[in-house]
């Protein structure tokens, strides 16, 4: 090499090393979450404080009672609970996708025999905890079914789903006896719990009558609704009655059923009174996502769930006299079968860890925007997840706890429970909004966004790092920038769900995934299942109403930043 060229090459090499070094050391630009506490919106309704499950007899079992106590305690408002099979004939023994109360039988002469013992035990468990039932009037007692045999199914997580639809799914052979059963149940409830308490409940008819849960026709369901609503209102004229709890309205059959029901409410001929229409105090339908395996990785589909929600809102909004009625999304989940375990359904391998938690945070936050865009009155969205008694640890059911140990997803609801007051404005230049997710789901860049609220003495900001693909992905630098804080000094508490915090599943795996944890291990798992602080609470100074809170948020992580003054 010529001697004159050496300095040039050296300079070039040093320049390249300098550039390469700056590239390797460069940090991703922080994602700014700008929260303006001076720009308040509508009240932040506790739409998350609604839960449900198939197996009503788990309610009063050991882990069921423990979990209900935890759900009740995380909320500052009464939590509503919806359970199937409250009128099913049987001995009250719990099984997967099965429950019974034996509320109605008949003597040898065909006379009704009412026994509210088990129903009362279920509802007592709720009321003792300050919870309230969504009293689902279902399913058909054996003595009233038009096709009673076979009646009880024997179902396991690996069985065909259609095997569960047996004699309890059929119309009544005597609509007047059915009506009297409903009347007696409501009257009994008023006598036991008081009129004011029962007036605060929601009474509904059946579950998903557009599929196998109802073996009658659309017309027969509508007839049953007329008889049921008439009985409820005769027993307690101020009771709240609703339906039809159809599956996702995005499906053509479901939408057709939904509209037929709504048309009847508005202009149909009532089967009992002969008058026009039927009473309806709230509207219900379901909305589910659709995960699948892609190259061995679970890929969620939040977009499918959002399209169902949006279609349901659109249908309700199309009836001028009904569009302002409260809407309860009776089941609102990442997919459809809570009792279909991960070991037999690998597409459900999102449920034990942080994927379920981050999905829940991102999905619930957008339901507010979906309702606002359609101009409807969203009251609640039921998370169809509870617990499955005496099952293997972390088997991968869609549940909130396993063997009495809380899973990460329950901590999202603990975060929601701390959010009070009115929604406040957050910057809209982030990667996703409800419309984009409705159209595309979250398949490109990660969804890093927030929901914020403020009341007179505090503010809360919920931040999540979500993607449909069940891979953790990179950590994200986040800068929460608050303005309009009405104080000069605030106490900041930062709660976190990720691989290290508020995560019993990761602790269980580090133990070696024990099939029978020791008492000491169970205690450690219970502690890990609680919502944990990322850092110690700290008093921070506020300058001109502004405060910056930077932090790193891992993939599938959820943070709640709470300010108190």
From TrEMBL:
GO MF: hydrolase activity, hydrolyzing O-glycosyl compounds
SUPFAM superfamilies, A to Z: (Trans)glycosidases, Glycosyl hydrolase domain
Signal sequence extent: 1-26
Keyword Cell cycle: no
Repeat recorded as keyword: no
Keywords on record: Glycosidase, Hydrolase, Signal
A GO BP entry: carbohydrate metabolic process
Active site residues of this protein: 208 (proton donor)
This protein's name: Beta-xylosidase
């Amino acid at each position: 090499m010529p001697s004159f060229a050496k300095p040039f090459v050296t300079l070039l090499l040093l320049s390249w090393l300098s550039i390469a070094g700056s590239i390797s050391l460069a940090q991703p630009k922080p994602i700014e979450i700008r929260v303006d506490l001076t720009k308040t919106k509508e009240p932040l309704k506790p739409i998350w404080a609604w839960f449900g499950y198939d197996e009503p007899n788990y309610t009063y079992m050991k882990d069921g009672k423990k979990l209900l106590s935890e759900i009740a305690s995380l909320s500052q408002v009464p939590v509503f609970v919806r359970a199937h099979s409250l009128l099913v004939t049987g001995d009250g023994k719990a099984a997967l996708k099965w429950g019974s109360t034996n509320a109605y039988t008949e003597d040898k002469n065909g006379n009704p025999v009412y026994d509210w013992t088990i129903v009362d035990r279920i509802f007592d468990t709720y009321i003792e905890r300050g919870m309230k039932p969504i009293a689902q009037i279902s399913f058909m007692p054996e003595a009233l079914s038009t096709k009673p045999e076979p009646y009880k199914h024997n179902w396991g997580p690996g069985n065909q789903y259609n095997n569960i639809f047996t004699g309890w799914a059929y119309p009544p052979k005597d609509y007047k006896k059915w009506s009297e059963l409903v009347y007696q149940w409501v009257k009994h409830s008023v006598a036991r719990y008081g009129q004011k308490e029962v007036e605060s409940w929601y009474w509904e008819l059946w579950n998903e009558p557009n599929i196998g849960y109802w073996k009658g026709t659309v017309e027969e369901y509508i007839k049953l609704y007329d008889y049921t609503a008439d009985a409820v209102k005769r027993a307690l004229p101020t009771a709240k009655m609703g339906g039809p709890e159809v599956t996702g309205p995005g499906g053509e059959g479901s939408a057709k059923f939904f509209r037929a029901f709504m048309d009847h409410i508005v202009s149909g001929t009532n089967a009992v009174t002969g008058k026009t229409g039927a009473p309806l105090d709230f509207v219900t339908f379901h909305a589910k996502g659709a995960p699948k395996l892609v190259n061995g990785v679970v890929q969620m589909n939040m977009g499918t769930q959002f399209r169902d929600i949006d279609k349901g809102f659109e249908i309700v909004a199309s009836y001028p006299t009904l569009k302002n009625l409260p809407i309860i999304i009776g089941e609102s989940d990442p997919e459809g079968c809570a009792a279909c375990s991960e070991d037999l359904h690998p597409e459900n391998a999102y449920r034990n860890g942080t994927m379920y938690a981050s999905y829940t945070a991102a999905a619930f936050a957008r339901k507010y925007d979906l309702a606002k865009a359609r101009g409807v009155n969203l009251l609640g969205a039921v998370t169809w997840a509870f617990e499955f008694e005496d099952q293997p640890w972390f088997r991968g059911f869609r549940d909130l706890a396993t063997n009495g140990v809380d899973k990460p997803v329950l901590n999202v609801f603990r975060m929601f429970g701390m959010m009070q007051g009115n929604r406040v404005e957050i910057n809209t230049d982030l990667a996703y909004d409800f419309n984009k997710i409705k159209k595309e789901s979250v398949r490109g860049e990660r969804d890093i966004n927030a929901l914020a609220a403020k009341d007179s003495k505090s503010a809360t900001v919920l931040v999540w790092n979500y993607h449909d693909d069940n891979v953790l992905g990179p950590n994200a630098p986040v800068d929460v920038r608050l303005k309009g804080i009405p104080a000069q000094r605030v106490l900041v508490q930062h709660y976190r769900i990720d691989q290290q915090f508020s995560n019993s599943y990761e602790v269980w795996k580090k133990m070696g995934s024990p099939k029978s944890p020791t008492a000491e291990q169970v205690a450690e798992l219970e502690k890990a299942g609680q919502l944990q602080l990322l850092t110690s609470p700290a008093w921070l100074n506020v300058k001109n109403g502004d405060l910056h809170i930077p932090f790193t948020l891992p993939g599938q992580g959820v943070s709640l930043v709470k300010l108190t003054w």
